[in-house]
Amino acid sequence: MGRFSIHRVWARQVLDSRGNPTLEAEVVLEEGTRSRAMVPSGASTGVNEALELRDGNKARYGGKEVGKAVQNVQKRIAPCLQGQNALDQQEIDRLLRELDGTENKSNLGANAMLGVSLAVARVAAAALGIPLYRYLGGTGSALLPVPFANVLNGGAHSDAPLDFQEFMIVPRGAPTFSEAIRFGAETFHALRVLLRERNLGTGLGDEGGFAPNLSSADEALELLCTAVERAGYTPGKEIFFAMDPAASEFFDQSSEAYVFRKSDQRRMPAVHLVEYYKELCGRFPLISIEDGAAENDWEGWRLLTRELGASVQLVGDDVFVTNPEFLRKGIAQGVANSILIKPNQIGTLSETLETVDLAKRSGYGVMLSHRSGETEDPFLAHLAVACNAGQIKTGSFARSDRIAKYNELLRIEEDLGKNGRYGHW
Ligand SMILES: O=C(O)[C@@H](CO)OP(=O)(O)O
Ligand SMILES: [Mg+2]
User: What is the ipTM of this complex?
Assistant: First the structure.
């Protein structure tokens, strides 16, 4: 039994930022080091995501309890990992996949597997006495990511009459990460004043952005321009914009049209939607569009990439689900030029890193991402720096579940000191 042998693994049910149950895993090594990790949860989930195991008893938390996943950790995963070397992350994740034995992790549950996978990495770093980002990425990890801060929440993340899910401010022109946070937070505060003045509502959506009474992307982006200027910055100089329409959510498969159900009921085929994006990109400093087409509209995705891929970052979320197989298909078909990375879409740390590696080798951009149901766990911040991804999407500046990641990045920035870099995306 070596120093880094796993002595004990267990899990418990805790709550996420929406007040829904989620899983927290804990790992203790022979030598006594102990760490834990929490698992987030999405609302606009891709159909091909790994399965999040929930109990389904409607009388308790509306069926959302994760008791089965917790039991899978205690009864099945723990005996399998006991005595394994925590430094051998690939082997741990392989054992988890072997034990599960399914394509989509439906046996053990991706929530059970990911919680353990992340807790093992964290305990290994702690036992070695090095920061998690350095353990995960090695000595070359020094790039602090540009934050994509979702300040207007629509779609499945709020009750606002906005069909597009996310409008983000991107302080790419800031000199450092901490200045980027300041530029972003100041703009967010200016936005609040503006919304109040115009009586549009200052209630918040799931990711801590406002959920105002706006009904089009044009209105949302115009408002963001004004907020940026009010905060003393110039749109397109220090601060840029990004959107996640999350188009799978408003795609009508039978008529193959995108239907703006939350606002004016407009319907458009992909070709018109792409024209609309083009028009918006012409009017606003919009540098990144995620899920501009639906997960099962590969034709629409190809069109979007042909039309806008040379000038705009096109990020695949639902269409790739952090899965190397779907990414490979996308690369072959000329779909998107960047990928959103959400570890719980695939279910283990090693597979997440494999997807990041494939994206980078293929010249695709990489953006690390939270889920709309988050926790206070800042693992994602370390992963973003570890991968030198250069981009992170982790919400607004008004909820501690989102701020936890930004604050951890501020600590990492301090830790890297003069060797940290920013803005090379
Ligand atoms: O669509 C998305 O990119 C995410 C995160 O912002 O939302 P959810 O976690 O609900 O899938
Ligand atoms: Mg998305």
Answer: 0.99
